[in-house]
Write a structure and sequence with these properties.
The chain has one domain. The protein is built from 3 helices and no strands. The protein is an all-alpha fold.
Length: about 120
Amino acid sequence: MSDQIVEPEVKPEVDVDENEPVFFKVKTLNLVASAARILSWVVLVCFVGIFVGNIMSFIEMAQGAQLAEIFKQVQGRLWIFNYLVIPFCTGATFFVLLQGVSNIIDALLEVDFNTREAK
C-alpha cells in the first residue's frame, strides 16, 4: 500500500446561463448607465448654479457700467471668458458626455438583447 492520498478531481461548477452574456453583466451595465444619467443632471444643475452665481457677481461688479465699456477693457473680457464661458462649456460638455455614455450603453444592451432573442 502506498502512503499517497488520492484526492478526487473537483471541477468548479460555473453557473452559466445560455441567455446571459459571457463578458459582461447586464445588471452592472444598467447600473452604470443609470448612474451616468443621474450624474449628468447633477453636473448640469451644479454648473448652471455656478454660471448664475457668476452672472450675479458680474452684475454686482459692473455697477451699472455699459457692456460695451466692459468689453473694451482686457480685464473685463478675461473675467467674462474665465467665469462665464469656461464653466458653461465645461458643464455642457460633461452633461453631453455622460448622457452619451448612458445612451450608448443602453443601445448596446438593446442590440445584444435583440440579437440573442433572434437565435
